[in-house]
Amino acid sequence: MTKNTIDKDGVITEEVRYFILSFKGDVQTFSQVVRGHWSVESLHWLLDVVYREDKNQTLDKRAAFNLNAIRKVCLHLLQNMTFPKEKLSYRRKQRYISVHLEDYLPQLFGKRG
């Protein structure tokens, strides 16, 4: 069982999740496994929202693997780049880079100042 307390706009809700499994480890190991699983799910959700990965119909497995790797690298770059506005969606970040490409090329390739 895990408990999650959420405070959204002053409204506090508590979620309780129950798990049925044959896990013989301790609580800390189990919590690490659960957090690891949800971090992977969060990444897959981001890839689907930003790049519509679930609609990808690439038939060649190597090409699909390569496209997935490229998307993950691009997502990592978007997460770590600096923008004039702090809160921009990933799609707006992509659009902003496409318009101001020459300004962002040094950041993309690791050259500073």
Automatic annotation (TrEMBL):
InterPro entries, per database record: ISAs1_transpos, Transposase_11-like
Name this polypeptide is given: IS1548 transposase
PANTHER family for this protein: H REPEAT-ASSOCIATED PREDICTED TRANSPOSASE (PTHR30298), PROTEIN YBFL-RELATED (PTHR30298:SF0)
NCBIfam families tied to this protein: transpos_ISAs1
